[in-house]
């Protein structure tokens, strides 16, 4: 090391003196340490990202070589592709319902597990399991089975006398999307863990003060817990929203985008176009559109966050 | 770590090795090396390598350099090599990918070699040869064939007292058959009356009425009368109403795995939308042999509309430097019975009649059924399907969209027919 970088050091030290030399030495070690990550980032993220940007500006089928077409793919998507709009609508519908449902169930469970009771740790782990399994093919297959016309969900409804006849929840154009939304709501594990951590951060003293002031449990929740939890809620909201915009496996296996394209979420449409139909250039353009869209939605959320997210340290 | 000495040693060794290799290459100047590329599973690789060994034993002056992968990545590799004028001498190909290769002049026409006798196709039937032609030229040879097939459960047919399906049945006969099965047994006649979403059933229907799915040049639809679409969908709608086949929601939710088709669970007496090479899979799902049957014919049909399809084809690169040796290999591949036995039905039921007979003699019950069925299919097959245009996957999706709209009752068949025509025309004329 000394040999190699000695020359560089001496050049720098001429104009910047000893501090600079020290700076390089210290930071170089840092760069060496992050090198594995950096290589991974460049090779598996930055490179494919730029590559797909290039492909999105070409006509590129699986059989042929990419040929430059400028913005044609984008123009076609916006002006001449009704399924693009369908898939956007479906995806927004899914996100608008699935994210709040998941966050609500995560928060509810986190409140239950907040206090240490016997077996709390076991239950925390048990309720985390769905979100480990949730993205898996096996769960999707089981889900499909559950909500089929011969499935357990129908058995339950009929046995309870709620419904006279069995319904194909997956095959019905209006209900199919809800089977997938419910699956999403059920996978509340990771936001739940984060909520639990957030709840622990809230000082006990605030509750004691609230109690002395005569606040009941419900008022405590709305006046103390919820405001102090807003940064965590905000974090979870962003993370879950990004995840759900990219939902693929569950939809692909449970409904494949059907019936009548009512569950054709964006990622499934992208896959269909890019891989099944073999239009890689077009698929890349679709991918970039959702990336930009997601960025915009996230920025808007960040802007509004000033209005409702309460940071304790603010103004200090 | 390397020091100077070891580095020098490595360099010297490398030079020496490459030198001796080139000397060896010079010494065997007369030996010809052919590159042979295919995709497949492990069992196909093993079978193919064994055939190559057999070939090299018989023709010691020809070496075959195997280049094999799985399906994924195969075409990336081929396309890159095509772009670099560096295609393997012998290429396993599929018909649906051939159009662009032929158009770009990447493949060697086999006609001259068949004419001068260096490639013997006397044991391959005319309809099989047709499967290898593109734009009127013999650009490839089919390795084996598949045919669209339905499957039925003999016991259930016996129980219902319904005649087994026969190649002479018309569409109306089949509708009666499905309804009767439903009435007698209280189960489905079949999940669907014909394969529809993928359009195969519709293709047969069109051909029987003297039309085609695609026009000759592949730039538009090959039928003008939307009434054909309407009649075809009405046929299905009527059966849905009778309860003999699944309704839209049931179809939507039924699994795509062939092993789980209602016929395998005894929930239907037959199944309609499969291929001949799936007999083992569906029979395994049912735990017993399910018998294959053909599409129906149309009453007073203009021509035979049913078809067979090559499972895959063998092609030669136009850039090959050793066309004679390539033909020697193809000859061996398509005509040597021992080689044919090794290859088996892995690449479809073989097209060479002699090999087919030899294989059938050794086959088990399931394979026997496939062989018998392919013979029936060959007797009842119309002209080979033309090459599909590049937009085929998208047109198929458009067809599926309209199909679902109709059976869900969101559109009338007439509306769907018009919408499909509009969409397909747009896709094909691009």
UniProtKB/TrEMBL annotation, chain A:
PROSITE patterns: ABC_TM1. It is a multi-pass membrane protein. Residues 84-301 form the ABC transmembrane type-1 domain. This is Carbohydrate ABC transporter membrane protein 1 (CUT1 family). It comes from the Bacteria. Belongs to the binding-protein-dependent transport system permease family. One of its GO terms (biological process) is transmembrane transport. Pfam families: BPD_transp_1. It is found in: Cell membrane. Keywords: Cell membrane, Membrane, Transmembrane, Transmembrane helix, Transport. The chain crosses the membrane at residues 28-50, 92-113, 125-143, 175-199, 220-239, 279-302. One of its GO terms (cellular component) is plasma membrane. InterPro entries: ABC_transporter_permease (IPR051393), MetI-like (IPR000515), MetI-like_sf (IPR035906). Its main location: membrane. It comes from Halanaerobium saccharolyticum.
From TrEMBL, chain B:
Residues 1-27 form the signal peptide. Coiled coil: none annotated. The keyword Nuclease does not apply. Pfam families: SBP_bac_1. It comes from the Bacteria. The keyword rRNA processing does not apply. Keywords: Signal, Sugar transport, Transport. This is Multiple sugar transport system substrate-binding protein. It comes from Halanaerobium saccharolyticum.
């Amino acid at each position: 090391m000394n040999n190699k970088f000695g020359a560089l050091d001496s050049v720098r030290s001429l104009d910047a003196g000893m501090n600079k030399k020290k700076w390089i030495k210290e930071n170089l070690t840092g760069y060496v340490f992050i090198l594995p990550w950096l290589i991974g980032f460049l090779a598996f993220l930055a490179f494919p990202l730029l590559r797909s940007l290039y492909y999105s500006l070409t006509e590129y089928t699986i059989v042929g070589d990419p040929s430059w077409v400028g913005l044609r793919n984008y123009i076609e998507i916006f002006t001449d592709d009704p399924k693009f709009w369908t898939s956007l609508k479906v995806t927004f519908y899914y996100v608008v319902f699935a994210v709040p449902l998941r966050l609500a169930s995560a928060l509810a469970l986190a409140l239950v597990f907040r206090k240490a009771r016997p077996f709390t740790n076991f239950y925390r782990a048990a309720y985390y399991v769905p979100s480990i399994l949730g993205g898996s093919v096996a769960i999707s297959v089981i889900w499909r089975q559950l909500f089929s016309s011969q499935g357990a969900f129908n058995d339950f409804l009929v046995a309870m006398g709620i419904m006279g006849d069995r319904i194909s929840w997956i095959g019905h154009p209006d209900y199919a999307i809800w089977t997938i939304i419910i699956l999403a709501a059920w996978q509340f594990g990771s936001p739940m863990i984060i909520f639990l951590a957030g709840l622990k951060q809230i000082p006990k003293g605030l509750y004691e003060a609230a109690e002395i002031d005569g606040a009941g449990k419900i008022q405590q929740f709305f006046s103390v817990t919820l405001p102090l939890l807003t940064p965590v809620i905000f974090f979870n909201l962003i993370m879950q929203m990004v995840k759900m915009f990219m939902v693929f496996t569950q939809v692909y296996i449970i409904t494949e985008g059907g019936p009548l394209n009512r569950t054709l979420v964006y990622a499934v449409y992208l896959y269909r176009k890019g891989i099944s139909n073999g239009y890689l250039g077009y698929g890349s353009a679709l991918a970039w559109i959702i990336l930009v869209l997601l960025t915009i939605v996230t920025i808007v959320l960040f802007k509004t966050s000033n209005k409702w997210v309460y940071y304790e340290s603010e103004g200090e | 770590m390397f020091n100077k000495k070891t580095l020098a040693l490595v360099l010297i060794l490398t030079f020496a090795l490459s030198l001796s290799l080139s000397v060896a290459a010079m010494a065997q100047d007369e030996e010809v090396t052919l590159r042979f590329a295919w995709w497949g599973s492990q069992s196909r690789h093993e079978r193919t390598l064994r055939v190559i060994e057999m070939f090299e034993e018989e023709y010691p002056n020809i070496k075959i350099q195997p280049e094999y992968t799985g399906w994924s990545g195969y075409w990336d590799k081929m396309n890159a090599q095509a772009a670099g004028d560096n295609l393997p001498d012998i290429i396993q190909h599929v018909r649906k990918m051939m159009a662009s290769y032929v158009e770009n002049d990447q493949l060697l026409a086999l006609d001259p070699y068949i004419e001068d006798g260096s490639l013997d196709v006397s044991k391959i039937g005319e309809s099989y040869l047709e499967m290898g032609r593109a734009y009127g030229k013999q650009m490839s040879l089919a390795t084996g064939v598949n045919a669209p097939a339905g499957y039925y459960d003999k016991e259930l047919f016996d129980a219902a007292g319904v005649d087994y399906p026969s190649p002479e049945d018309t569409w109306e006969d089949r509708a009666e058959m499905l309804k009767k099965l439903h009435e007698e047994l209280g189960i489905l006649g079949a999940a669907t009356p014909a394969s529809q979403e993928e359009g195969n059933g519709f293709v047969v229907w069109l051909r029987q009425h003297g039309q085609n799915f695609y026009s000759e040049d592949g730039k538009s639809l090959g039928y003008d009368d939307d009434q054909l679409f309407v009649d075809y969908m009405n046929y299905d709608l009527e059966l849905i109403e009778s309860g003999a086949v699944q309704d839209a929601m049931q179809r939507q939710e039924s699994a795509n795995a062939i092993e789980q088709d209602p016929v395998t669970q005894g929930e239907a007496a037959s199944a309609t939308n499969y291929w001949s090479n799936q007999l083992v899979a569906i029979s395994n799902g049912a735990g017993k042999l399910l018998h294959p049957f053909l599409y129906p014919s149309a009453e007073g049909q203009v021509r035979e509309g049913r078809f067979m399809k090559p499972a895959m084809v063998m092609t030669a690169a136009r850039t090959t430097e050793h066309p004679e040796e390539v033909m020697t290999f193809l000859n061996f591949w398509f005509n040597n019975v021992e080689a044919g036995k090794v290859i088996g039905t892995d690449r479809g039921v073989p097209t060479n009649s002699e090999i087919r007979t030899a294989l059938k003699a050794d086959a088990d019950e399931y394979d026997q059924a496939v062989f018998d069925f392919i013979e029936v299919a060959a007797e009842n097959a119309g002209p080979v399907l033309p090459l599909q245009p590049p937009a085929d996957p998208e047109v198929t999706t458009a067809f599926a969209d309209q199909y679902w709209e109709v059976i869900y009752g969101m559109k009338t068949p007439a509306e769907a027919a018009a919408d499909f025509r509009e969409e397909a025309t747009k896709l094909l004329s691009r």
